[in-house]
Design goal:
By secondary structure, the protein is an all-alpha fold. The chain contains six helices and no strands.
């Protein structure tokens, strides 16, 4: 049983790494399909986690936010940003329980980005909430010992933030 779970987790890692590369090349639908496949593996191998977490979850949130930004209509964008916010907030709870600093930083980043996107489209988020999460992400990165690995960085860091606040 342990070997099967280990093999499934390897498939999850490979699938999400490939999905992230495909996302960064602009093929979002293909990337989404791979992330969904990886999430199904996640559910089967670790049923207590119903969606991707850690770097894999962050990368999926990055794709979901990129997709949301491409939608027409603030209501759709707010809805999708809210879903990402919920997903990332759940991941943040898990990473805080496990005390994994890089995961905490990534989850705060995803929550902050989702809140900012909600705010920019008239949603319930505020700039103060978004900035609080982003500042906490930076603090946790520093506490973890530096910058995230290049693969963990969003392709367009903070491209959704207004130029002035």
């Amino acid at each position: 049983h342990a070997d099967l779970t280990s093999e499934m987790l390897k498939k999850r890692g490979v699938s999400t790494t490939l999905a992230n590369a495909i996302h960064q090349s602009g093929r979002m639908e293909q990337a989404r399909q791979l992330f969904e496949y990886a999430e199904e593996i996640q559910k089967k191998s670790q049923s207590q986690y119903q969606h991707l977490y850690s770097i894999w979850g962050y990368r999926y949130c990055d794709l979901l936010l990129a997709e949301a930004k491409q939608k027409v209509g603030s209501e759709l964008i707010r809805r999708d940003a809210s879903r990402v916010r919920h997903r990332a907030s759940t991941n943040l709870e898990w990473s805080c329980q496990e005390e994994i600093l890089l995961d905490i930083a990534l989850d705060h980043t995803a929550v902050g980005q989702a809140v900012m996107l909600e705010f920019l489209h008239g949603g319930s988020g505020t700039i103060a909430q978004a900035l609080a999460h982003l500042i906490m992400a930076v603090d946790k990165l520093r506490e973890a010992g530096g910058d995230p690995p290049p693969a963990a960085r969003p392709a367009r860091p903070c491209s959704h933030l207004p130029c002035h606040v």
